[in-house]
Write a structure and sequence with these properties.
Layout (H helix, E strand, L loop, with lengths): L1 E5 L5 H4 L7 E4 L7 E4 L15 E4 L9 H6 L4 E2 L6 H16 L2 H9 L5 H11 L12 E5 L3 H12 L3 E5 L5 H6 L5 E2 L3 H5 L4 E4 L13 H5 L5 E5 L8 H9 L3 E6 L12 E3 L8 H21 L19 E8 L4 H11 L4 E9 L2 E8 L5 H8 L4 E6 L1
Parallel strand pairs: 1-2, 1-3, 3-4, 4-5, 6-7, 6-9, 7-8, 9-10, 10-11, 11-12
Antiparallel strand pairs: 13-15, 13-16, 14-15
Helix pairs in contact: 3-6
Pfam families: 2-Hacid_dh (PF00389), 2-Hacid_dh_C (PF02826)
Protein name: D-3-phosphoglycerate dehydrogenase
Enzyme class: oxidoreductase
Length: 387
């Protein structure tokens, strides 16, 4: 019986992928084998010694102490792409809201008073204050061409926009899915100097913090609209507000309200709605639940932010899963222990990622406690378990 601790409400569609005859799931549980969460901040949490996996029902893992868990030999799974359509639709919504001045126009309409004839008169007199622009022929820049960025690019092309993309680490899969009509920028600065709208789809790391700042704003087109539905901190909010007040930036649409932003007439702030659709929540929960289950039951790893991708079909006998520091001679030491304790290897797969290495070994018969203890005693071994 595997024990699963949920730190947030997880969609039932995802939890149903964990059969109750093999899984106990609760928001309060001792000695969990795995943790499922969405936005709960784990950084100050004491990590249970029993923990074998963490599953984030979403893409970002800023709320999870990934480095600490790596040192304990615990993989962190996420659900990249599961909420991509939801975020794409919100980016398009943000562009349309800004282009047509929808939010100030709505505020104006809601503030109208008098009889219907009087309101009609006020409408005709006031609508000139909300003249907007159309998207076809305008240029959208997309920084980050993962699952979300590719969908945003392709949708903007379908709306008749010119699209420029930038991602030095684009995957082969994303490249295949990206419209051939999307122009490729040579750098962030190259892209920013060419666009009327710019949308960010990158994680928040040192290299992306304040990617939009005062210096870069000077080299952008007058009237540019900035969209940030990725992570708070990618855009220097203070610099953008100054640029708006100076007439340089035409508008700012983001998912991260603050006292600085929420009441500004040319800023639209939404309450972190990027992945807030029923479909996205279900997709994320299903994906991460299936990945955690596959790891717990078979040791296979898919969509982990700290472990290598590993998949090995089950053979006869028992499976051994070993996490260790990525240093020389580890595989030889593990194989030697198995040989010395009389365990014949049927199949083996070893992969590494950064400072971690992960090995699956199928052996004939069952692995006894003496063998496990010897493998655990190898310097650099972080965790070992039988499946």
């Amino acid at each position: 019986m595997y024990k699963i601790l949920t730190l947030n409400n997880i969609s039932v569609a995802g939890l149903d992928r964990l059969p109750r005859d093999n899984y106990e799931i609760a928001s309060e549980i001792t000695h969990p084998d795995a943790i499922l969460l969405r936005s709960y901040k784990m950084h100050d949490m004491e990590i249970p010694a029993s923990l074998k996996a963490v599953g984030r029902a979403g893409a970002g893992v800023n709320n999870i102490p990934v480095d600490k868990l790596s040192q304990l030999g615990v993989p962190v799974f996420n659900a990249p792409g599961a909420n991509a359509n939801a975020v794409k639709e919100l980016v398009l919504t943000g562009m349309l809201l800004a282009a047509r001045n929808i939010c100030p126009a709505w505020d104006f309409a809601r503030g109208l008073e008098g009889d219907d004839a009087g309101i009609s008169k006020q409408v005709e007199a006031g609508k000139k204050n909300f003249v907007g622009t159309e998207l076809p022929g305008r240029t959208l820049g997309v920084i980050g061409l993962g699952a979300i960025g590719v969908l945003v690019c392709n949708a903007a092309k379908a709306l008749g926009m010119n699209v420029v993309g930038y991602d030095p680490d684009i995957t082969v899969q994303s490249a295949w899915q990206l419209s051939a009509d999307v122009q490729k920028a040579s750098s962030v600065d190259d892209l920013l100097g060419r666009v009327d709208y710019v949308s960010f789809h990158v994680p928040l790391v040192d290299a992306t913090r304040h990617m939009i700042n005062a210096d870069r704003l000077k080299n952008m087109k007058d009237g540019v609209v900035i969209l940030n539905f990725a992570r708070n901190g990618i855009v220097d909010d203070e610099a953008v507000v100054r640029a708006i007040d100076e007439g340089k930036v035409g508008g700012y649409v983001c998912d991260f309200p603050s006292n600085l932003l929420k009441d500004h007439p040319k800023v639209i702030t939404l309450p972190h709605l990027g992945a807030s659709t029923l479909e996205a929540e279900e997709n994320c929960a299903v994906m991460v639940a299936e990945q955690v289950r596959e790891f717990l039951e078979n040791g296979n790893v898919r969509n982990s932010v700290n472990f290598p991708e590993v998949f090995m079909p089950r053979s006869e006998g028992q499976r051994l899963a070993v996490v260790n520091a990525n240093v020389p001679k580890m595989l030889g030491q593990i194989s030697t222990v198995l040989a010395d304790t009389g365990h014949n290897i049927v199949d083996m797969l070893n992969k590494s990622r950064g400072e971690l290495a992960y090995t699956l070994v199928d052996v004939e018969g069952e692995v006894d406690q003496d063998c496990l203890d010897q493998i655990k005693g190898i310097e650099g071994v972080l965790s070992v378990r039988t499946l």
